[in-house]
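Internal tracking record. Fields below are filled automatically when a chain is submitted to the structure queue. Please do not edit lines marked as system-generated. If the sequence contains nonstandard residues, flag them in the REMARKS field before resubmitting.
Queue: standard
Priority: normal
Entity type: single polypeptide chain
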Amino acid sequence: MCTTHILPNDARARRLFVTTGALKRIQEIDTVPGTSLKEYINIINSCFPEEIVRFYTPGYSDSLLDRVEAFTPQIPELFTDRVPSDCQSELTVENAK
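SYSTEM-GENERATED OUTPUT FOLLOWS
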C-alpha cells in the first residue's frame, strides 16, 4: 500500500515516519516546483502538522536562532522596578539568618 494511503489514516505510521527520520529526509530532497516529486512531498507533508514539517525543513533551526537573537524580552514590571542591589541586600539578609 502507498505511503499516501497509510499516513492519513494511521497515527502510529505517522509517528514512525517522524521518529525514523523519514520526514526529515523528505524535507531534504531538492525538488523543482510543479514536478510530480514535489507534489508527492506536498501530499506527505499534508499528513503532518505544519510546525513539525517546518521543524524538519533544512535551515529552520538557523531561522529560530535568528529569532532568538532579534527577540526583545518583555519583562513583567514586578521584576523591572527592582534594581540588582535590592536583590543582593535580600540575599545578604537571608544568608545572615
